[in-house]
Specification:
Two copies of one chain form a homodimer. Chain A contains three helices and five strands, in the order βαβββααβ. With about 140 residues, chain A is an alpha+beta fold. In chain A, strands 2-1-3-4-5 form a five-stranded mixed sheet. The two termini of chain A are about 20 Å apart.
């Protein structure tokens, strides 16, 4: 496992990432099984973690739930890191982004230094990057 | 060197961190030597890097200028990282914060996992944290 995808489970989400069923790609088994369902008592961050766990994980990627990535005003948030690579934090996500996040994690895993060529990045990686940190020396 | 303090040199600053001379603690040699001086052509991020370089660096801390921490709307920005530690990104800084940033970097270096006790953190570490990433496994 060279790439870690940390998922904040305590994120409350933001107005910029409202929950709803429009364009739903998560609740294939029906709203009763959907982590986004109205009335769900879990936090949006936990719903995102559930949505990620329900999908096939790319080779070399490990999903690790974490309590708080300290970007509470920009939730939901995830972080990508790996040995010798740039680390990234992305925000304003919700459970509907799970598939795209995992596709991006696979690209990150494949990139030697974690730098995915700009044009190949998922839109949420281009537009919802909160910060990045250079590789540790 | 166990702790790296990355400083973004391309940050343009934010309205929340205006430049000016009120409360100046940097330009002891006079405005002519001050990286904050009116009319200075360098970017706020570069001025912050200069201000940091002009101060004594805490033991175990290495300052590394970097082009872009991808938090451009929250500049100026710095990041703290070290082996086995949580990494942090702080924003809305300017050159007047240099001394406080270095004091915080020394606390980070002294903390086994990078987690400085909340009450001991400088105010800018409590209120201007943009994101944090767990230690690499």
């Amino acid at each position: 496992m060279a790439t870690t995808l940390h998922v904040c489970t305590t994120c409350r989400g933001t107005a910029a990432a409202p929950l709803g069923c429009e364009g739903c790609t998560v609740g294939a088994a029906g709203c009763g099984a959907c982590p986004l369902a109205e009335g769900a008592t879990t936090r949006p961050g936990e719903r995102l973690a559930h949505a990620l766990a329900a999908l096939p994980v790319p080779e070399g990627v490990k999903i690790v739930p974490v309590e708080c990535l300290s970007a509470c005003g920009q939730g939901c948030t995830v972080a990508l890191s790996g040995p010798g690579k740039w680390s990234y934090v992305f925000g304003r996500l919700d459970a509907r982004d799970a598939e795209t996040i995992l596709a991006g994690a696979a690209q990150f895993e494949a990139a030697a230094n974690g730098l995915i060529p700009w044009r190949e990045r998922p839109e949420i990686f281009r537009k919802q990057c909160l910060a990045r940190i250079p590789p540790q020396e």
